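Good morning,

Attaching, inline, the backbone tokens for the sequence recovery test we're adding to the shared suite. The designed sequence is right after.
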């Protein structure tokens, strides 16, 4: 049967704007047909088999239930690695790729020990391990489900990461951490009150434990990881955070009060203050 992309795009426009809906349908078509993007776009009408049409209808039903396209497809590309994703973990964002790029630009990281706190899918640790074969990567998370998926992602990409379970807010967290040259983290930083403005595909399907922080204590993860970094970073070691754009100066204040130096705020490609680094 012949169909057009617009046939499906129009059904998604109550949820997404037309450009985003079109991009999502294109991804779904590529996944189901295994055709290149160029081939899908080149055809005015797409001739699909019955099984492919059935899969499109199933996919569309999931999309209309606000399920993210990444969970439907089952994987994402992230800084040169292919990652499996499902509702156990957050979907890696492009700004986190920028954080990885910033870490890689640091002279310390050529052959060093790196710890990724709140690893989730393992995206940061796996990407860094792929780029830095002579470095040693550790990564932790409170969620055993997330760690299981992160380990699978490390195996999928042929890299070695030492994963371990840990609650970064626990008083015993520092005892679990080995000395490191770089600590990097993309911890939860979305305020609960922000949930009212979030898209349904995030709110209904991505794990809230990895997203939200209390409205009255939004920087709790940054304080805890910073304190651990004081004891576990090597002399002149570096700390890298992804941050909530509304709290850049507050994170800087935490780092200054802890005695860190060479503190830098960095904007992402969208112009939002999204990262901070500091030296012990």
């Amino acid at each position: 049967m012949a169909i057009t992309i617009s046939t499906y795009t129009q059904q998604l426009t109550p949820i997404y704007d037309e450009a985003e809906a079109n991009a999502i349908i294109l991804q779904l078509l590529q996944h189901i047909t295994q055709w290149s993007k160029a081939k899908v776009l080149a055809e005015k009408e797409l001739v699909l088999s019955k099984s492919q049409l059935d899969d499109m209808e199933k996919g569309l039903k999931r999309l209309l239930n606000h399920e993210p396209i990444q969970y439907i497809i089952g994987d994402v590309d992230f800084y040169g690695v292919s990652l499996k994703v499902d509702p156990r973990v957050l979907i890696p964002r492009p700004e986190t790729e920028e954080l990885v790029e910033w870490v890689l630009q640091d002279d310390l990281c050529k052959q060093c020990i790196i710890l990724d706190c709140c690893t989730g899918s393992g995206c940061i640790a796996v990407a860094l391990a792929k780029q830095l074969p002579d470095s040693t990567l550790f990564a932790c998370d409170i969620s055993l489900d997330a760690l299981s998926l992160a380990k699978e992602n490390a195996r999928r990409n042929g890299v070695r990461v030492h994963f371990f379970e840990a609650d970064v807010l626990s008083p015993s967290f520092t005892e679990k951490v080995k000395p490191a040259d770089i600590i990097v983290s993309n911890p939860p930083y979305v305020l609960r009150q922000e949930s009212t403005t979030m898209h349904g595909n995030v709110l209904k399907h991505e794990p809230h434990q990895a997203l939200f922080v209390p409205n009255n204590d939004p920087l709790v993860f940054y304080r805890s990881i910073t304190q651990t970094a004081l004891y576990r970073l090597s002399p002149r070691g570096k700390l890298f955070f992804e941050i909530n754009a509304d709290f850049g100066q507050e994170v800087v204040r935490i780092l200054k009060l802890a005695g860190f130096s060479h503190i830098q705020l960095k904007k992402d490609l969208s112009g939002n203050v999204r990262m901070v680094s500091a030296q012990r």
